[in-house]
Amino acid sequence: MAINLVDNTEKNRFHINTVLLTKRTATLLDALDISSQKISIVLMDDAEMARYNADFRHKKGPTNVLSFPASELYNDLPAGLIENQLGDVLISVETARKEARNKYCSLHHRICELIIHGTLHLLGYDHERSTREALIMWEKEQQLIQQMTRSRRKNMPYLAINVDHVATVRQARGTIEPDPVHAAAICELAGADGIVVHLREDRRHMQDRDVYLLRKTVKTRLNLEMAATKEMIDIALDLKPEMITLVPEKRQELTTEGGLDVVANEKKMKKVINKMSKAKIPVSLFIDPDAAQIEAALEVGATFVELHTGRYCDATTEEVQNSEFRLIEQSAELAFESGLKVNAGHGLDYRTSGRVASLPTIHELSIGHAIIARSVYVGLDQAVREMRDCILVAG
To answer: Largest CB tally within 10 Å, which of 13, 189, 351, 388?
Structure first.
């Protein structure tokens, strides 16, 4: 199989994930049973597409996709020289992005639809010949887009455990027990892939002593949740955890109530991320599952986004829960396709985690309260193992 995917668009204008598109094109060729054929996919802007449209179709302006079968491209060459050459599919990413917004889908999903459309034209399908052929081609496209974009997890997502609530119990009595540092060690021994702690400005649960000891003792990955304040930035730069997650923080809230408004704070977020980048500390932004926030996270240079799953977990009806889950699914796909790594967390428990864990775009789940609450009844080791089982079954 030979897929030549060329991105001629302006660098960083559209944030095209060429690796993802190449994999999906390979899936398409397999589904069509033409994996031995060679195809070229060329991504371009409207201006370049308009030139092709004028030269080859004698029409003004851009179109979304053009197809050129090998038999037409190389009609002056002997048939043996173009054997297994399917042809070229040209796509205007600029037009595709406009169409994606109108269809409420991701840019990469729309490009995949256009790759399918263009490839079917190379195979002789033509929706302009008759209504019947248009219907046949449309039905084929619907079948193929499901096959092209559907994927299953090959590995379970990582499980990162937040031990803040262990510290909450300790601080309720002002003693030294239970110790979140000890709890983190038990979580790791039970199979946790990372430890999450939120050092708040008011130090209501985790203390400076805790995070510095955890930095020395955690064997997996330490994720420091923090507000984007000077104090916390200085602590993070001194601590050097494996990653930080920037979260909104209000003194009166019981727990983090919503995602960061990255759109309204792009300048501030970019400044913090630049500092962390110089220290080689990856940054995740805790955001609501919203396309505008994802785009802003990409613009400011985040490595990860953590999608807020609270509304999904708190839904009181199946209809609302399904609606919130679809929003998480679409947002995770959009972020992943844009090149961001995608985590998810907030409110996830033994009933709600599995569905989110099944999404192939989710890199890691961050879970705290449900596991610590369960540990009161079955012990922390068992509570962690039960959550891992929930995720493993889902994956």
So the answer is: 388
